[in-house]
Specification:
This protein is mainly alpha-helical and 149 residues long. It contains nine helices and no strands. 48% of the residues lie in helices and 0% in strands.
Length: 149
């Protein structure tokens, strides 16, 4: 029986849960292998050959080769593991995040300095105040909407 996952309706967001962890296990292990200088060198020498040593899906391998971090995340990658690919390429986390949003590094930095992304479009689908029961009064004295229960 599948678990209910109400958090799956957050637009544009992939939650790294147990299912994503299982899906991305070998992708994330590949990323962690890049912590060793010898593995980074082997990867840089022949990326496809190095990836083929890992039992990853073809889609995962192609996403790594394309440096499509959004696809890697959708395929089970964890951003903290995927950062090892960026480091191998000499890219900062800020550069990687910018590429994931379609922004340049400077545009991404400016956005973050100015308070981050707008919350518009980043709500639970259908959210109008009653979509988050954990934030609603539960009928007990002293509890108010907006208070975590």
């Amino acid at each position: 029986m599948a678990l209910k996952k109400p958090y799956l309706d957050i637009p544009g967001t992939t939650i790294f849960d147990a299912e994503q962890s299982r899906k991305g296990y070998h992708l994330n292990q590949f990323c962690m292998s890049l912590m060793k200088a010898s593995n980074r060198e082997r990867f840089k020498q022949d990326q496809r050959a190095y990836l083929d040593e890992w039992p990853m899906s073809e889609a995962q391998k192609l996403a790594v080769l394309a440096r499509d971090l959004n696809a890697c995340i959708a395929l089970g990658g964890n951003i903290y593991f995927l950062a090892k690919i960026g480091a191998t390429d000499g890219r900062s986390f800020q550069q990687m995040a910018g590429s994931m949003t379609g922004m340049t590094e400077a545009e991404y930095r400016t956005m973050m300095i100015n308070g981050g992304r707008s919350v518009e479009g980043n709500r639970v689908l259908g959210e109008d105040g009653d979509a988050q029961p954990h934030r609603q009064p539960q009928g007990q004295a002293g509890q108010t909407a907006g208070k975590d229960n």
